[in-house]
Amino acid sequence: MCTVCGCGGSHEHDQDHGHSHGHTHDAGHVHFGAGEAGVAVPGMSQARLIQIETDILGKNNSYADSNRALLAAKGVLALNLVSSPGAGKTTLLVETLKRMEGSIPAAVIEGDQQTSNDADRIRETGAPAIQINTGKGCHLDAHMVGHALERLPLEEGCVLFIENVGNLVCPAAFDLGEAAKVVILSVTEGEDKPLKYPDIFASADLMILNKTDLLPHVDFCVGAAIKNVRRVNRKIQVLQVSARTGEGLDGWLAWLGGALKMQLVQARGLAAE
Ligand SMILES: Nc1nc2c(ncn2[C@@H]2O[C@H](COP(=O)(O)OP(=O)(O)OP(=O)(O)O)[C@@H](O)[C@H]2O)c(=O)[nH]1
Ligand SMILES: [Mg+2]
What we know:
Helix content is 37%, strand content 17%. The chain is an alpha/beta fold. The chain has one domain: P-loop containing nucleotide triphosphate hydrolases (Rossmann fold, 3-Layer(aba) Sandwich), CATH 3.40.50. A 7-stranded parallel beta sheet has the order 5-4-6-3-7-8-9, with helices on both faces. Strands 1-2 form a two-stranded antiparallel sheet. It is globular. It starts with 23 loop residues before the first strand and ends with a helix. Bound molecules: guanosine-5'-triphosphate and magnesium ion.
C-alpha cells in the first residue's frame, strides 16, 4: 500500500472516523486532498493517515540518506528520472548511453511494476542494469535502490540513472538518495501537466520536454508548458529534446557533464575532510 496516494488502501476502521474525512464538496467539485493529510482513505482519519505516512517516509528518508552518503563518497552522480508511463525515459536513456559510451561510465536501475523489458533495452547498449519489479507498488523506494546499489559496478565519476516507475504522483514523495530529480514531460501529454501534478514538477531540478519531433502534429504550446512548470517551480531548468531524432541531446549531455563535475568536487571535498 502506498499511503501517499492511498492506493490499495487499508480498510482499517478508526475510532475517530467521522471527525475528519479529508474531502470537501462544492458545486461541481469534490476535493479528496482537502484534509491535513492531503489524501482521503475510507475508514481512516486524517491523523492516522499522517502518522502512517510520517512513519513510512521517515524510514524511507533514512535509507535515502545512507544511499546518498554512499554515492557521494564514491563520487557517483545519481539521477532519479520520473515521468508518466511512456514519456520516453528508457528511449532517452538508451540514446544518452550510446552518446556517453567510452567517455563517462554509467549504470542504470530500472523500476517497473512488471517485466525486465527496460533493463534488457539498457543492457543492449553495453551498460550494466538492474531491473526492480515493484509488483503492486507504484514507485521505487530508497530501500529497493539500496539493494540494487550492492549489485552494480559503481566507479568514481560514474552516472547512475534510476528510471522510476512511470507515475506522476507517488515517486514525488520518495527520496531515493539521488543528487537530482529529472522529470520528463512529452509533448503528447498536454501542457497543463505541471499544474495537475504539481508535486513531481516542484521536486525536480530539471524538466526535459521530450518528443519535440511530434510538435507539428499535436496541439502543444511549449511556451505555455514552460510557464506552467515555472508556476510550480521557479528554479527548474528546462531542456527540449527529441530522443527519436537526437535534437537537443547535446544540451542534456552538457547538463549531465556539469552535474557530474559538481558531484566529483563534493566527493573530493569529503575525501579531504
Ligand atoms: N516520436 C517520438 N517518440 C518517442 C520519443 N521518445 C520516446 N518515444 C516513443 O515513446 C514510446 C514510449 O517510450 P519509452 O522510452 O518506452 O517510455 P518510458 O517513459 O520509458 O515508458 P515506461 O517505462 O513504460 O514508463 C516508445 O514507442 C518510444 O519509441 C521521441 O522523442 N519522439
Ligand atoms: Mg521505461
